[in-house]
Amino acid sequence: MVVHDAQAPANNSTFLWISNPAQGALSNRSQMAKGDNFLSSLLLLCMSILLEKGFLGGLLFFLFKRMKRKASEMLPCPAPAQSPAPGAGSQGLATASSAV
Predict the structure, then answer these.
(1) Could you tell me the residue ranges of all domains in the chain?
(2) Which pLDDT band, with edges at 50, 70 and 90, does 87 fall under?
(3) Measured at the alpha carbon of residue 41, what is the angle toward residues 39 and 42, in degrees to the nearest 5?
(4) CA dihedral 60, 65, 71, 75 (to 10 degrees)
(5) What gap in Å lies between CA 82 and CA 42, rounded to an integer?
(6) With contact defined as beta carbons under 8 Å apart, do 1 and 11 qualify?
(7) In the chain, fewer beta carbons within 10 Å around the N or the C end?
(8) 3-state helix/strand/coil string of 47-99
(9) DSSP 8-state class, residue 6
(10) Distance CA 27, CA 68 (A)
């Protein structure tokens, strides 16, 4: 309602519709950006998991190799078995028997 001096009050209703076609395009772009953001985050997550598994595998490999080397250093080396020379016969006590 509008009232002016020396005039009758005016009473009118009007609807104002504002449409912005670019707003719809921005909404679609933001949805696409969210999808791209999700995919890049998922890819980054997968790559970081694989990298972590690689580092863990390398560390375990290093530790097991080191443990194996330390264990072999701690064990005494057995002396090689002495085998008799071929054709030397027995090296035990020799006994003589006399035939009469």
Answers:
(1) 25-74
(2) low
(3) 65
(4) 160
(5) 65
(6) yes
(7) C
(8) HHHHHHHHHHHHHHHHHHHHHHHHHHHHCCCCCCCCCCCCCCCCCCCCCCCCC
(9) T
(10) 61
Could you identify the residue written with the tokens 């006590």?
Answer: 93
CA-CA-CA-CA torsion sign (26, 28, 34, 37): negative
- Enter the tokens of residue 92: 């035990």
Token look-up 């530790």 returns 63
For tokens 């707003």, the residue is: 23
| pTM (predicted TM-score) | 0.39
pLDDT grade, residue 68 (50/70/90)?
Answer: confident
Q: What are phi and psi of 90, to 5 degrees?
A: -85, 150
3-state secondary structure at position 26 = helix
